[in-house]
Specification:
The chain has 6 helices and 4 strands; from the N terminus they run E-E-H-E-E-H-H-H-H-H. It has 151 residues and is of the alpha+beta class. The protein has a 4-stranded antiparallel sheet. A hairpin with a 2-residue loop joins strand 1 and strand 2. The longest helix is centred in the middle third of the chain and has 26 residues.
Length: 151
C-alpha cells in the first residue's frame, strides 16, 4: 500500500513458483531460468475515482514480495528517466508524430542523454551541458567524442 500525491495505491501479488505446475506452460522448455509466473492487481484511488489494473509477469526470482519490489524498482527507474528526458529535452512537448519519427527521436534523445552523462569535465546539469554545447563547438565535440568509446 502506498499513499501520496493525493492518491492511494494498493498492490497485491499472486505467484506460482511450483516447477511441476510451471512445466505445463506452453514453451516452458525455452525458458531455462523461469521460476515464477505472477499476477499483480494494482488498485488506485484518487478522490472518488477508483481504477484497477492487472499485470502479468514471468521472472527468474521467487516470492511475491520480491516480485513486487522488482516491478516497483523497474518503474521507478523508468519514471526517473522520463522525468530527466522531459526536463532536459522537453520531451512531452515534442510534435513528432508521423511514421517512425517518435521512436527515432526517442532513441536520439537517449543517446544524447547518455553522452551528456558520460561527459564529466563540466559540473552542470544535463540541461546546462546542452546549453554550453549549443554555444561552444569545442565542448560539443568533447561530448560527441564519447561516441567513439561506446562503439
Amino acid at each position: 500500500m502506498d499513499k501520496g500525491h493525493g492518491r492511494i495505491e494498493i498492490c497485491e501479488c499472486w505467484t506460482i513458483s511450483d516447477p511441476e505446475i510451471l512445466r505445463y506452460l506452453r514453451g516452458f522448455d525455452n525458458w531455462k531460468k523461469l521460476r515464477t509466473v505472477s499476477r499483480i492487481r494494482s488498485q488506485r484511488i484518487i478522490g472518488e475515482k477508483k481504477s484497477t489494473e492487472y499485470r502479468y509477469h514471468i521472472a527468474s526470482i521467487c516470492g511475491a514480495k520480491r516480485i513486487l519490489q522488482s516491478v516497483r524498482s523497474h518503474w521507478g527507474i523508468e519514471n526517473r528517466l522520463h522525468w530527466v528526458l522531459d526536463i532536459s529535452f522537453d520531451e512531452d512537448r515534442s510534435r513528432v508524430r508521423k511514421d517512425h519519427g517518435p521512436e527515432n527521436f526517442a532513441i536520439l534523445r537517449h543517446i544524447a542523454l547518455n553522452l551528456l552523462r558520460m561527459e564529466t569535465s563540466c559540473k552542470r546539469s544535463i540541461r546546462g551541458k546542452r546549453l554550453i554545447a549549443g554555444w561552444n563547438d569545442d565542448y560539443l565535440l568533447d561530448i560527441l567524442s564519447g561516441l567513439s568509446s561506446v562503439v
